[in-house]
Amino acid sequence: MAAPTYSFENALTGKSWVSVAAGDVISPAPIAIWVGTAGDLALTDAIGNTVTLKNVPSGTAIRCSPRIIDAASTAADFVAIFG
Prior knowledge:
By secondary structure, the protein is mainly beta. Helix content is 7%, strand content 42%. It contains 1 helix and 7 strands, in the order αβββββββ.
């Protein structure tokens, strides 16, 4: 899958989000990730720091700026939200 990006065209149409999948590189970094299906959310930031958030419920928006949603995530149906 091609890396999702927030583009100038998205800004013109008012789109401030993109659907992303585990393993995707997100560019630029979002202001939040919405989790559609519950599970563990593994994230990596721009300098390589990683964290796994355990048992994230479905329908949760987490304010964070990851570059990658790691393939180790068991949660699914992610949406990257941009400011």
